[in-house]
Specification:
Two copies of one chain form a homodimer. With 106 residues, the first copy, chain A, is of the alpha+beta class. Chain A is built from three helices and six strands; from the N terminus they run H-E-E-E-E-H-E-E-H. The A-B interface holds A 16, 18-22, 26-32, 34, 61, 63-67, 69, 73, 75, 77, 79 and B 16, 18-22, 26-32, 34, 61, 63-67, 69, 73, 75, 77, 79. Chains A, B: InterPro entries: Pyridox_Oxase_N, Split_barrel_FMN-bd. Chains A, B: This is Pyridoxamine 5'-phosphate oxidase N-terminal domain-containing protein. Chains A, B: Pfam families: PNPOx_N.
Chain lengths: 106, 106
């Protein structure tokens, strides 16, 4: 397990994040997400504001790749597995995030 | 075929672009590219400055998904097929792009 350093945490939380998944036919998808939160040294919490295709893709494959960069082109790529929560602790967490107050937090 | 409008062209050419591909095991990858150029109404030319994994992935699957957004979160997603040129007209084109003069244009 690679730990997410404070430097990586900062860049992920302060910039848009590109989140790539694959569909059931092995075709890639990428969407942009905001307000990603580092909630453990190896966990990124992402709110489903508007991610229909990503949500569908995660139902068939949990593999994800995440890329982030700042305005100076410093960037990182993280590879891992994602889990989609329809309820429970993390669902509650994103619903209560101030950043999500004007958006649907599914 | 969906045509790339002037509005989409502008946003693609003026912002970083997230380019998603899949590897031979159907795992997603995303990398960020700059200086994408619209070279036809349905064609985006992207320089391989630093895209090792993407290059490897395109050897096994030509499926790509491209996402782009500006600072105001206006964004687009394009889905299609990619071809990697090691020589020829488009290779020459990217080598001669002024934006690539300080970068490797593979």
């Amino acid at each position: 397990m690679v730990k997410i350093t404070p430097e990586v945490k900062k860049i992920i939380e302060e910039n848009p994040v590109a989140l790539a998944t694959v569909d059931g036919k092995c075709k890639p998808n990428v969407n942009v997400v905001s307000f990603a939160k580092i909630v453990a040294q190896d966990k990124v919490l992402i709110t489903d504001n508007y991610m229909k295709q990503t949500r569908e893709n995660l139902a068939s494959s949990s593999d994800v790749c995440l890329a982030v960069w700042d305005k100076d082109w410093n960037g990182y790529k993280l590879v891992g597995q994602a889990k989609y929560f329809k309820e429970g602790e993390w669902k509650k967490f994103v619903e209560e995030m101030p950043e999500n107050k004007d958006f649907p937090a599914k």
